[in-house]
Amino acid sequence: MEQQRVNAAHIRTEESTGEISAVQTIAGHSEAVAKLASAFAEPFGAGSLGYLAGLFHDYGKYAPAFQSRIWDNGGKVDHSTPGAYEVLRKSSGLTTTPISSKEVLSLLSKNKAVLPVVYSIAGHHAGLPDGGDISCAAGTLSGRIYGWKQKKMPIAEEISYPQISWPPLTATPAHMGFCLSFFTRMLFSCLVDADFLDTEAFMQPVKANRRKANTSSMSDLLDRLMQHIEKMGFLDGREGMNQIRSQILADCIHAGKEQTAGLKTLTVPTGGGKTIASLAFALNQAVKHGMDRIIYVIPYCSIIDQTVDVFEQILGMENVLAHYSEANYVDKDEMSDMKRLASENWDLPVIVTTSVQFFESLFASRTSACRKLHSISNSVVIFDEAQTLPLPYLMPCVHAISELVLNYHATCVLCTATQPALDSLFSKYLPDLQPTEICPRAMIPQDIFRRVTYINEGVLEDAALAEQLNKRAQVLCIVRSRRQAKAVYNLLHNEEGCYHLSTLMAPIDRKVSIDEIRERLRNGMPCRVVSTSLIEAGVDLDFPEVYRALTGLDSIIQAAGRCNREGKRSVAESIVHLFEPESTYKIPDPLRLPKEVAERVTHDNISQPDDPTVIRSYFQQLYLFQGDQALDKKEISKRMEADSRRGLFPFSSVSRDFHLIEQDTWSIVIPLDELSQKLCTILQNEEHPLSKEDYRILGNYTVQVYPEQFMALQGSLFVTDERRAVLCSPILYDPRTGLAFQDAGGNGLFY
After folding, report:
1. In whole angstroms, what is the distance from residue 28 CA to residue 159 CA?
2. Strand partners, 11
């Protein structure tokens, strides 16, 4: 029987016959998306704007051309711009369709109350566009609105314009542009996620049902954590370091219960148990303030797994999602499938992700990247190792954190042993915005956490350095470049128990090495390790002695955190040897100023670099010498302010420019085992496109290299697509040391 034609948003067909099995009307879809988007936006007071966006997002589907496309397999039709224009038209009372380019800009400028809705509707398929300028260039919001001046707009009497109200956004006039652009991305996220979910529920109901996870409430998770704390006796420490850890944990539990939501710092020396303590604060805070989830932001992929393992053991696997480039959830079981879907919109109680994933999403324009953003509102966000926020993007990152605290009911915690002096940057955004310390350092006796003695060895050439390392049964050496790491490793006595760590190694091989290192240290076996700084933050290892090439103060202290971590040895015999590498190794530009400032604040006498006053002075001077312009290298925040009064935002161009890790690199895939070889074969032969999950799996076998290093590998690579290649010569890769080529430098980004 022929299906009655209605104004259809989606048509579902039987896979076996191709017959139409169900039709979703535009009105039905629009109303469902409006209700979902409103619910997602309600936590930050934008429910009515979310409803408006959902109601008009598919307005363009009423056009005869679109109905011809959906019923008769017609050509591509832009159905996003009509809805954006219709909201502008109705909000302004405009009755005529044809308008000039100047009138377009005037329309955008005078209707700021609905601009977040207009941008969201216009971008709900292709991503948030740039606002444009007087030229109204094609592809920009102004250009797309202008392009409709001669076209007949669809008319849908069944969709009426609702009442709207604005949330009371907190912002100074100087930062209103940033505030509005941030708000637009958040509203865009609500619309995109609502649209995806309702479309999926209609078109793929089986897939939609897989999202229905049996997760726990914040109260249940807090109960699980407290049971674990009681079982392990974490609050029962009576002497030495265990007593202080118990005090820190107790303070975090108390602060979570008593403190208001907002901006926090948690400054705990290495070895103070901040992972469990910060989780205890977060869960207590979430329960107190009715928050929806905990988001743990970690700087490096290499240390996510151990954090996730801890959280899953305590809170249950079904409640914890790891979302980063190397996480893969193949359809092998129901839980993996559920987590793969949850990674799209962060719809689980506890999220563990990277700084790159978190911040680049906050400045993204693509639908897939922005879809999860609304889930950050009404959450507790822990920024682990907060001192690692990259200086060229520090200002926009601080502004983003400020927005989450001020306008999205989030508690944001800067968690580290070396607290960056960010209070002045926060106060520049809003004078009253100042962090509250969860566990005041004045309460922590520094002598108890002082587990090492620092000695400056002066200049050590590679041969002399290796000679000293060879004399020690267990020792860690951290250098400033991948080239030196391999050179010093090759000078160690070639015997069992010697390890090299750098990002020249595939992640899967680094993980194997770290597991072996941990096991050898635990069993008192010989273990000599030469590494780049990837080992410093969060990798839970305990060496009796550490050698560290001179660098920034925060890195020196992080390196010292791998020495006598458990305090089982005396301070006198737990030595951190600081040294200057031989002159053949030039210091990478990003490390030059941190090293100079460290030497300045310690007056070249680094005997107690972990003193709180020294650390604060270090960061204050580092930011001062950098200057505001260097803290916003791509002028991200500045650009968001420039045209805000005209309602024009550079969403798409900012998204292209905001990269915490610069993208001028090649991804070299190393086929190391049967699985990776199979995927590489598909990649090379182009049998069929690899899925997102396939690429995530390949991330475990991938090494990033600079263009000059890529050129050195030419002849040994099969180039598959832009910026990706497969290594075809196994002799150029060693699981112990990674890719082999003459690395002449360029070590500022990879560790």
Report:
1. 10
2. 23
Handedness of CA 634, 635, 637, 639 (dihedral sign): negative
- Nearest in space to 191 (alpha carbons), one of 61, 79, 376, 40: 40
pTM score, whole prediction: 0.89
Q: What percent of the chain has pLDDT over 70?
A: 93
Pick the CATH number of 218-443 from 1.10.260.40, 3.40.50.720, 3.40.50.150, 3.40.50.300: 3.40.50.300
Per-position b or e across 460-483, b if 16+ CB within 10 A of its CB: bebeebbebbeebebbbbbbbbbb
Q: Find out whether 88 and 228 touch, Cβ atoms under 8 Å.
A: no
Tell me: domain 451-609, CATH 3.40.47.10, correct?
Answer: no
Beta bridge partners of 474: 527
- One fold for both 218-443 and 451-609? yes
User: pLDDT tens digits, residue range 695-713?
Assistant: 878 888 999 888 888 888 8
Question: How far is it, in rounded angstroms, from Cα 131 to Cα 148?
Answer: 16
Domain edges within the chain: 24-210, 218-443, 451-609, 666-739
Nearest CA among 346, 221, 343, 345 for reference residue 286: 221
- Tokens of residue 748, six digits: 């500022």
Q: 374 pairs with which residues across the strands?
A: none
Residues of the chain with confidence (pLDDT) below 70: 1-3, 95-98, 149-153, 212, 302, 325-333, 441-448, 537-538, 604-607, 662-663, 686-688, 742-751
